[in-house]
Fold this protein.
Amino acid sequence: MPRRVIDADAMWSSSKLANCREELRVEYAWIYGIADANGNFELTETSLRSLHGKAYAPLRPSFTLQNLKILIEEFHRNGLLYIWEENGKKYGHWIGSEKPGRLPALKHRDRYPCLKVHVLTQDEQRVYLETIGLDSNGFSQTENEAFPTGAELRAQAASKADATLARAAANGDETEQFKLINWKSFWTLYPNKRHESESRAEFWKLPVTDMPSAVASIEAWEASARWKDPQFIPIAKNFLKSGDWKITPPKEKHVGKERSERNLRNLGLHPKMDVPPR
C-alpha cells in the first residue's frame, strides 16, 4: 500500500472538519489511509463492507456499517470528500490529498496499484467545494440516494464555474488561511513595526507548525531586559531570520544586586566599596 500522510496541523485547523458532527471528526484520521496513491477509493456497497471489515470490525466492532455510511456522507457534505459516479460505480477522493507530502510523489505512483478512474484536477475540486458552499443545507438527498451522481455535480457546478474558481483562487486553501491568521497576530503584537513586507516574507518561510510559537514568543521578549529599550528591539525580519523567537529571552540581570547597589549609593557609599561593619 502507498504511504499516506495526514497533515495534522491542517486537520486540527480545518473549518470543514469543524463543521462535521463532533463524534465523527476523529474518524477522518482513522480511515484516511483507505485511498490509493491518487487519493481515490471505491464506495460501492461491497467496498464499504470490505472497508468496515478491515478498519472497524477487528478493533471497534460497535462502529457499525451504517455508522460508516453516515460518516462518509458527513465528510462528503462538508467538503472533505469528493464523491462521483463513473461506469456505474461510486468513488471517493480525499480533497487536498494531492498536496505535496501527503501521497507518494507523482513519478513514483506507478509503483502502487491505483483505481482505473478519472484523476480529479484541483479545478474540479474547487468547483465542487464552491458548489456545496452555495447550498447552506448541503445536498438534499434521500436515504436511498446518499450521493449525487457525477452528472448532477457537474450540472450544479457548470453555471458557477468561472466565478467560483476565481473566488476559490482568491481565498486560498486552509493552510494559507492559517498562515495569514498567525501573521496578522504576529504583526499586531510585534512592537517594531518597520519593513512589514520583508518581515511577512520571512514569516512565510517558517514551518506552519512553528508559526504559533513565533507569535507566542513576543510576549516573553517584551518582558525581557533586552527589549526594555525600544532601540534594541530588532525589526521583525531579523528577529525571525535569526531564530530569536526560538530562544528563551534573558531575564533581568541580578535584580537583587542592582537594588542593593542603589541602596548603597543612597547611603553615599560606592557599590564596589566594602560595607562598613555595624
